[in-house]
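Hi V.,

You were right to ask for the full record rather than a summary. Here it is.
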Amino acid sequence: MSRDRTSHGDVPYDRELIRSGGASQRGERGRQATPPRRARARPARRPGSFLRALRNILLFAILAVVVVVVLLAIRAATFNATVSSASFPSAALLGPMNGSERVNVLMVGYGGEGHDGAYLADSIQIMSIDPATDTTTTIPIPRDLWIEGVASYAQNAKVNEVSSTGFVTGDLDSAGALMAEVLSEVTGLAIDHWLSIDFTGFREMVDAVGGVTVDNPVAFEYTHNPVQFRAGNFDAGGFAAGEIQLDGAQALAYSRARYTSVVAESTDFARSVRQARIMGALRTKVGEGGIGSILPGLGLMDAMEGRVRTDLSVIDLYLLSSHLSSDRRIELSEGPVLTATTNTDGQYILIPTGWTGPGSYGGIQAYLSTELAAPDAP
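Predicted structure:
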């Protein structure tokens, strides 16, 4: 007999769905309506997250500065080891440059290997810094100044030979120290430090900063040969009047030219003035210090390695760099201070006016003392 499937709950259709006209009460009771989904609110940024980001940026910046400082210090120490007899990081000038007494530094330019008279001084200048006024006075020393009767130098010679004597009997350190000691006695100035540079180093320094611009007041031509000079044949080149741009080779020629078409430009005094223009232009290129001076400073380090010798550390050289452009000059000129004559070998020399014999440098010392004490000296 067949089973009535309608009497059981497992019928193959939904009675309630049919009775309700299509809406299943069982289904409605079995589930609840899903509420509409709301957009999830973005959590507010906590103040701490901004501070953490700022802190990370600062830490990164500090780390970068530390790395740069360490790298620069390593570079400076390497440079110091190649050019200076002073240890790194000593600072012999730091105290004196903030004191009350003048700081006097001797600067000597010489030819170097490959030049005639390689270690004869071609340029001799004393940089005298007054810490009280933060001004610099340049005192060029004529190469023909006669040295005789000086305790530190037993020989008689022109002053430009002193450095050569020191080199022959020792090395570049001996040459610089001897020249500083001799000129201390002659001028009466306490010259405690010195710096020397050869022609190649001078040329490469100018090229390292991309050349220099100077204002040349007088146009002139020049030759390297005294015979050509006497014949009026200036075959080596010339410099126009006004603002001129010079690369390293041109700057060296401009600084050294002595056989020129203009009489006034053929003296050691004129050469020292032109050299001062170059140094001032270099100072401008190096800048006032800080970040902007790092790249020019590194370029100068590269140019000076193996070409410069000094008893000052790299820190002292940095302190000195702001005084490369002088505020005034004191010249030991013929007439009031020096007198031209010849020695027993017939060489042209300059002796102090009123010379009474060996060691008679009182006139030079008195003149420099008076001029340095005058605030408005030219």
